[in-house]
Give the backbone structure.
Amino acid sequence: MPIGLRILSITISISMLIVTFEFIRREKLKERYSLLWLATAISIFILSIWTKILNAIALFIGIIIPSNALFFIGTIFLMLIIFSLTVVISGLSRKNERLAQEITLLKKRMEELERSCGEKD
């Protein structure tokens, strides 16, 4: 892998680690959502430092240029992150729908109670 690309990928992976830890520290990112980001940054860092591992992976996958294997692995991790966030969003959507239904039922019950109290007075 060319030295310029190697330095760039090391810099990006270290930056990803720093930003992820900073977001966790500031409580803008929960730990459970940060795991894949941390794994991605650490993997890219390791593969950028030890290019023999990257060369072996590229050879195993059948990719001629090792830097393309690095981008391929990064893309796989990003797809995993997107998938995990989609699962979280789906769960939150279901919870939001249930909450909206409960609020509607509570409003209806409250209106009925207000009407029944108004009739007694």
About this structure: The radius of gyration is 25 Å.
